[in-house]
Amino acid sequence: MSTETLFRRITDYAARPDPYPLYAELREHGVARQEDGSYLVGTYDEVVQLLHDPRISSDAHSRADVDEELLRAEADGMTPAFIGLDDPEHERLRGIAMRPFGPPHSPGRIDALQDDIARIAQELIDGFDGREEVDLVDDFAYPLPVTVIGRLLGIPSGDMGQLRRWTDIVIASLDFDPGEDPAVKRRRGREAGREMADYLGDLAASRRDHPSDDLLSALVGDPGPEGAFRHEELKSTAALLLIAGHETTVNLITNGALTLMRHPEAAARLRNDPGLMPSAVEELLRYEPPVQLLPQRSPLTDIEVAGVTVPRGAPLILVLAAANRDPLRFPEPDRFDPARRDNQHLGFGSGIHSCFGAPLARVEARIALTALLARIGADAHPVEDPPPYRRSPVLRGPRHLLVRH
Amino acid sequence: MRIVVDLNRCQGYAQCAFLAPEVFFLRGDEALGYRPRVSDDQRERVGRAVAACPVQAISAGPAAGADVD
Ligand code: SF4
């Protein structure tokens, strides 16, 4: 088949359980121009090089096909979060957000969450008692990170249901669904995102007078030398952290559970030696990364990639999951090896936009999978394999994972 | 246990400093610092940091750093 249709075939829902043969086809062809003028890259060296290339923009304004909906939203006062900005704006906003989240100013925040995370995981697992069949998504992998990000930000637990509904709409709007008018979907996504951001902005403002030890209080409190967020920046950043804190970790945990059930020897090894779990989590990020591809980049000028000229403004799609299985970089790339050593995977991206929440995701996945292995026996198995997947080819993972244990 | 970080490989993403904040820390904005002698209560955390370092820049163990002493 023509490589011009590769992206269509990757986004086709039928490919969701196993996109890896398509990624192999992509790697073989180097850079693949698509019928709509976008470019797909899936070889490790090229993806890394592009992730570190300052001529590659993450800003939607750099694209030749400027999104009218975005311009309208901006005319209304919305500002994009740092994931959609280039330096120096990206660095300024990311720096302000990092101040209460991690080192050097807040070195212990994630570490201090560990006991909480373990307790939440254990409570969810205790809920398995007396049930032969559980849904590892709805009963475990979803509620865990959502509860954690809610607590971290300081959102009252009673409001999390509403935030989940907004998140679902925003996530759906990022999807590639041939059956739906993309403009309508994007508009709906922006509306939900705006309502969510307004809610978070009001909540943060109320913390100004009644601070507690959560992230929202810190973000409206005492600014560092980088200065403080403007209110609109605070809103979009808080919404980004909340949304990114939802789906990605859910998929990391679910893909992890499924992979371990498919590899009983690895699961047995990890049961005996939980100290191997941190490296198993890294391998999962390589082998079944929750973010499969980055669809939002474009070059600021014509660039050469592996002998192909990608014109300025063309959508440039970096397929992290394909690079993660490049045989030129990883020996036996299709083998799941929880003890793999040289494992510089791209599961969290790389370069200036490398995942902000990576340290939290690592801790959550390690604790969740360790607790899960301790609870479900070696004979636990999926009721259906492959399980039903979510629609998204970008944030890929099972929608449900019914397990008999 | 002793550790050594190959600072030529280190890319400063600070994953280690999140996972074992008492052992690894950032000086100012980017430069990584660390305490080479690891106390027993920090071993497990350091093990997680070793696994999570994207470029495998941290070596740990009784022999780590033997050649730089
Ligand atoms: S995790 Fe590795 S690369 Fe990152 S700061 Fe620590 S030693 Fe350096």
TrEMBL record, chain A:
InterPro entries: Cyt_P450, Cyt_P450_B, Cyt_P450_CS, Cyt_P450_sf. Keywords: Heme, Iron, Metal-binding, Monooxygenase, Oxidoreductase. GO terms for molecular function: heme binding; iron ion binding; monooxygenase activity; oxidoreductase activity, acting on paired donors, with incorporation or reduction of molecular oxygen. It comes from the Bacteria. CDD domains: CYP164-like (cd20625). PANTHER family: CYTOCHROME P450 YJIB-RELATED, P450, PUTATIVE (EUROFUNG)-RELATED. Belongs to the cytochrome P450 family. This is Cytochrome P450. It comes from Streptomyces qinzhouensis.
From TrEMBL, chain B:
The keyword Electron transport applies. It comes from the Bacteria. Its cofactor is [3Fe-4S] cluster. Keywords: 3Fe-4S, Electron transport, Iron, Iron-sulfur, Metal-binding, Transport. Signal peptide: none annotated. GO terms for molecular function: 3 iron, 4 sulfur cluster binding; metal ion binding. This is Ferredoxin. It comes from Streptomyces qinzhouensis.
